[in-house]
Amino acid sequence: GLTLLLPVLINSRSNWSETKLRIFCTASGVQELEKEHKGMTVLLSKFRIDYSDLVIISYANAAPKSKTKEWFDSLIRPFRQSGEGNHIKERELETFQYRTDRYLRLRELLQDHSSDSNLVVMTLPILRKGDFSAPLYMAWLDTLTANMPPFMLVRGNQTSVLTFYS
């Protein structure tokens, strides 16, 4: 809700009124693509949200490119050294390899679809405290936002901010 509401509110301001609202979301698989598209179209219609493009991405779980993995490895290299302080351990990287690959793939999709945007609004990835180190989490955030247009990461408090009456 909040991740969608903020761009709509920003778009209502005079200096942003000419911008196009493009909405991207992921689907579980190719078979869910049409169902997700229809469901999202209905939801946007109920809330009277004008958008120029709705893209349902079904290949978000594909493996990231080796170039992207190399970029990420160079990003975390300083935090993998042993010694004092907070570092990323090899075991932690192995445990969270799926999430890391997902964020790397999302980076590729963001670069493909949103590199020329005026503003990107995305839900902030939140995981349970203590499951991973701060350097790994910050590397994930950097992965999503590095060399991108202005980026707004949004996290609500699980309270609905959009209401409609039937």
- Our Rg estimate from Cα atoms comes to 18 Å
Biggest pleated sheet: 2 strands, parallel
How many individual domains?
Answer: 2
* Low confidence ranges: none
Q: How confident overall, as mean pLDDT?
A: 82
Task: Please state the overall shape, judged from the principal axes of the Cα atoms.
Answer: globular
**Number of E-type strands:** 4
Structural class: alpha/beta
> Beta-strand level of the residues, as a percent range?
5-15%
How would you write the strand order of the largest sheet?
1-2
C-alpha end-to-end distance: 18 Å
Helix/strand order, N-terminal first: HEHEHHHEHE
Total number of helices: 6
Can you give a write-up of this model?
It is a single chain. With 166 residues, the chain is an alpha/beta fold. The protein has 2 domains: 1-58, no CATH class; 62-118 and 128-144, no CATH class. The chain has 6 helices and 4 strands, in the order αβαβαααβαβ. The chain has helices spanning 2-11, 33-46, 66-76, 90-95, 97-114, 134-145; strands at residues 22-26, 53-57, 120-123, 151-154. The strands form 2 sheets. Strands 1-2 form a two-stranded parallel sheet. A two-stranded parallel ribbon has the order 3-4. Helix 5 (97-114) packs parallel to helix 6. The two termini are 18 Å apart. 11% of the residues are buried.
